Amino acid sequence: MESVSQQIKSDPRYPEACQSCMNCGVCTAICPAAGYYSYDPRMIMNLVTEGDNAMLTEIMSEDVIWYCGQCMSCKPRCPRGNIPGVVIQILRMVSQRNGLFVRSAMGREQLAVKRSIGHNILETGYCIHPTRVNPAMHPEQGPVWAWMSDNADEVYGRFDSNYNREGPGNMRKINRKSLDELDRIFEVTGCKKLWDTIESESEKRIDGRFTKYD
Ligand code: SF4
Ligand code: SF4
User: Fold this and answer.
1) pLDDT at res. 162
2) How far apart are alpha carbons 49 and 44 in whole angstroms?
3) Which 3-state string (H, E, C) describes 138-198?
4) Nearest to residue 83, comparing CAs of 10, 14, 11, 34?
5) pLDDT (tens digit, 9 = 90+) per residue, 157-171?
6) Taking the model in full, what pTM does it have?
7) Which regions of the chain are under pLDDT 70?
8) 65 Cα to the center of ligand 2, angstroms
9) Which of 68, 75, 80, 83 to mutate to test the pocket of ligand 1 (most atoms within 8 A of CB)?
10) What is the pLDDT of residue 206?
11) From ligand 1's centre to the CA of 170, what distance in Å?
12) Atom of ligand 2 at shortest distance to CA of 27?
């Protein structure tokens, strides 16, 4: 099996995302996430470039790779044309593929993300859809959300009269043919295989705790 460094460097996004880092730190200086977290894209770019498998395995097992907000502010600022945000995307995928994500709290959240946003896309065609945010499961949304949920046709109908119906318009119902096409895209790109890994790895016992989300 390929080392994690080889897996990272063989990703088709890698040649554009990491061309030649000179460790200048401009990406860290402008990174919004670095202002909030103990997060340093310069350091991550250095580790990836050096290919230290032990250190890469360590950071892919920690929360740090999930701190990036994917804003891509680093992209236009890097003097070498690198894209640290895309390197982070690769690290996240390799972390999931190798079951490392379950070792960190933010990594374990990927199961919930898969089951919510991921399933929403395949079942409705939208990342988030009003019908999928059930007030009973999300009391933090408050009473206004519960009221909107009960009166969704009227409320969302004010934005577009074709809400949740076949045909054109904002928030229209996505037809079966398009949903089948999305399903096929998730299949052939390997996303579904990755989802299976997220499910199976999340069920394993880590540090004496079950990480399964029910
Ligand atoms: S990725 Fe770019 S901005 Fe960041 S340290 Fe490397 S060369 Fe500098
Ligand atoms: S994409 Fe990530 S690493 Fe780049 S600036 Fe935004 S938060 Fe920072």
Assistant:
1) 87
2) 9
3) CHHHHHHHHHHHHCHHHHHHCCCCCCCCCCCCCCCCCCHHHHHHHHHHHHHCCHHHHHHHH
4) 14
5) 888 778 888 899 888
6) 0.87
7) 205-214
8) 11
9) 80
10) 53
11) 40
12) 5
**Tens-digit pLDDT profile for residues 25-57:** 999 999 999 999 999 999 999 999 999 999 999
Helix, strand, or coil here: 205?
strand
97 CB near ligand 1 (under 6 Å): no
Whole-number pLDDT of residue 207: 52
State the ligand closest to the CA atom of 69.
2
Where do the structural domains in the chain lie, given as residue ranges?
A: 4-98, 105-210
Ligand 2: centre distance to CA 161 (Å): 38
Pocket test for ligand 2, best of 21, 48, 71, 91 (most atoms within 8 A of CB): 71
